[in-house]
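Dear U.,

For the methods section draft, I wanted the exact inputs and outputs in one place so we can describe them consistently. I've listed the two proteins in the order they'll appear in the manuscript figures. Please don't edit the token lines directly; just add comments below if something needs changing.

First protein:
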Amino acid sequence: MTSLLHLDSSADRSGRSVSRQLTALFADTWRAVHGTAGYRYRDLAADPVPPLDTAYCSLGRRVEERGLVPPDEVDALITDAAERRAWALTRPLVGELLAAGTVVIGAPMYHYSVPAALKAWMDRVGFPGAFTGQETGQRLLHGTRVVVISSRGGAYGPGTPREGWDVQTPCLRAYFGELGVAADDIRFISAELTMAGLVPRLARFRPLAAGSLDAARAEVTALAGAVPEAPAAGRAARPATPSARPA
């Protein structure tokens, strides 16, 4: 079964968030093609992932000391209530990512990087050994498709004054690459100059902003409506837990 994990991280839940609008378009298009059974939604701003603590670090080190320990065997290494709470917060997030054939992430650019809500999810999900097969050493996210949808108030492309200021894209590319997602399976879609409609001094860029948003919508629709992906060889398909996206 094809499956989609839909993550939003914009702090703006008013309906005006461009990244949320675009991830919603992706999800709606995807469900129109694939149905709703494999869809899972998580709002990282409405339901924040707690930051890491000592218990998470202690349990992670214990896992590291033993080499590759699959998630199903981590419980046996827990030594106290704090570690049990840390793992109870972590295990469902790991399971959602392992179950997903496609992951769409709304990642507005905040101060040139990712929102804190998304970074907290990244930190917790990246638990040692969770995405590497114990017997084979295979990267379990090989074959998973990741689509990052970013909104930016300014412009950061080649030839712009802020070219090279975008540390969000290389961060996410490196993060998911380290987890095992193939380079060709990580896609970035950006709507730029989103502040042009609000800030008077940027008014002259409104046509460029509109063009960027139109191009992002077209790319989102094309990617979401693509032919269903098959599970990677040696990776069993795992059903996602259905969840309706809030209006």
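Second protein (the one for the lower panel):
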Amino acid sequence: MRDKDKLLSFRVNRQELDRINAKREEIGVQNMGAYLRKMAMDGYCVNLEMSDVKELVRLLRICSNNLNQYAKKANETSSIYIEDIRELQVRLDEIWENTKEILSRLAMIQ
């Protein structure tokens, strides 16, 4: 048995259909049924732009790799350079600034 076994049908004119399709495409939903269900139940759909989060992940990877390299160097030589630590701190500060900006923008979503 299908879990979606009830059919809901309604008519629209060409302009309404064009507007519905434009809004659906704008948020990146391919499936018309999924879009209409979401809109009927919740009244809105949100498509988050994730490029900032991807950049944040990239910066975290760089810092993690650097930290691993510093730890390996410290284990091998029993010392590390203060400039390496300063560089890592600058990168971590940049990540925190990006994180604060992303969280601030997410907090504005209603």
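Candidate sentences for the figure legend, describing the second protein: The two ends are 37 Å apart (CA to CA). The mean pLDDT is 84.

Thanks,
Y.
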